[in-house]
Amino acid sequence: MVNIAWTKKYPSKELLRRDIDAMIAAATKVILKNFDKRKIKYITLVGSTCKPWDSLIDYVPWISDVDIHVCFKDKDLFLNLDTVDKSAVFANKIENAYKKSLPEHYHYPTLQLNSINKISSLKAYMPVPKISERFLFSHGSKEFVRPRVRYKISVAKKEIIEHNNFVNNFFSRIIDKNRDTMEKYVREIGWRISPASYSTLFILGASYDEAFGYNRTAIMKRFKKLGYAKLSNDYASFYIYAWKYYLSKDFKYLKKCLHHGHAALKQMIEIAEKK
After folding, report:
1. Which of 59, 94, 161, 264 has the smallest number of CB atoms closer than 10 Å to its CB?
2. Rounded-to-integer distance, Cα 125 and Cα 147, Å
């Protein structure tokens, strides 16, 4: 089993959290300056940055997102600046605010902004468990009515199996790519593995709040406990080798990262097809 211990060879959790907190503050400040705050119902932070970090796999700088959701009071309003130029300027304002507040930062956290009004209207949208969410700004009460979870095993299976084409054609996707493009495929795998791991645990019997609220360390341990030792190891190895590549830029770690990520996603699809 791959070693997931957070040793002194890696940057400290405190250092990474410091950078993340600075990014959260910068993004929130720019959002509130560029959109009428009277029209914003709340801004929340969701995902891995809200969860405890019990091992190295719970946060990896270049593939873990600082995921911020903005909810407007009017359901028809979105986090949208309607032109490329405005959006580019907005992103640049966040970058400048972050670098100004923390000139000596260790890393530049990957920011992901979403309009909850927009994504909550999608059929595939699933509300975030409370354990995985933190309020950054709110008008009035920080408690709000959440959509009732209607997630079904049949839906979970369908969402995982939809990755089949990506997995089956993965070899041909990377055979003619340079290292920079391969790095992008690591993120593409990460975007798929993260939700697929939640859905796989749900299929295997975990409750919705457990499956979608666990950090990666807990997910890895749950897979192993359920008898999926290889999946557990491949899942963890994807993140560990992503860390090793981030620190060294050694191609052998990029290759291992792609290998284990592909293997983990493939096994999740097999579970969805058989269960």
Report:
1. 161
2. 10
